[in-house]
Automatic annotation (TrEMBL):
<keyword id="KW-0969">Cilium</keyword>
<comment type="subunit">
    <text>The basal body constitutes a major portion of the flagellar organelle and consists of a number of rings mounted on a central rod.</text>
</comment>
<comment type="similarity">
    <text>Belongs to the flagella basal body rod proteins family.</text>
</comment>
<keyword id="KW-0975">Bacterial flagellum</keyword>
<dbReference type="GO" id="GO:0071978">
    <property type="term" value="P:bacterial-type flagellum-dependent swarming motility"/>
</dbReference>
<comment type="function">
    <text>Structural component of flagellum, the bacterial motility apparatus. Part of the rod structure of flagellar basal body.</text>
</comment>
<keyword id="KW-0282">Flagellum</keyword>
<dbReference type="GO" id="GO:0030694">
    <property type="term" value="C:bacterial-type flagellum basal body, rod"/>
</dbReference>
<feature type="region of interest" description="Disordered">
    <location>
        <begin position="59"/>
        <end position="78"/>
    </location>
</feature>
<keyword id="KW-0966">Cell projection</keyword>
<protein>
    <recommendedName>
        <fullName>Flagellar basal body rod protein FlgB</fullName>
    </recommendedName>
</protein>
<dbReference type="InterPro" id="IPR006300">
    <property type="entry name" value="FlgB"/>
</dbReference>
Length: 118
């Protein structure tokens, strides 16, 4: 089994990628708050079936879509800065928590490598 192919490591890696994407989308929306007819983007998590021999079952994938549910201003733009700032903060805190967990996992691995065979 490859070193970084356990389920927890893959889950953390996917989570980090998803939170990074959420930060990018929120930043892009904030940058376009004054663009006429701009429709805010949002990140959705869709369940997809993984076609793999290991049989892990369903996997969730982050997908960027357009927010058509939010009411637009007279200029056609539907970006809500407060909502985007909150989404950006939440994605940042979740990303930070996952990086701390990943760091702990790698520190444990480093400890095992450095202290094996002594």
């Amino acid at each position: 089994m490859p070193l970084f192919e356990d389920a927890a490591f893959r889950a953390l890696q996917s989570g980090l990628d998803a939170m990074w994407l959420k930060q990018q989308v929120a930043s892009h929306n904030i940058a376009n708050v004054e663009t006429p007819d701009f429709k805010a983007k949002k990140v959705e998590f869709k369940q997809v079936l993984k076609e793999a021999a290991d049989g892990n079952g369903p996997v969730y994938q982050a997908v960027v879509g357009t927010d058509n549910d939010t009411e637009a201003r007279p200029d056609g733009n539907n970006v809500q800065v407060e909502k985007e700032e909150l989404d950006l903060w939440k994605a940042y805190t979740e990303y930070s928590a996952m990086t701390s967990r990943m760091s702990g996992k790698l520190s444990t691995l480093r400890y095992v490598i450095n202290n094996t065979g002594k």
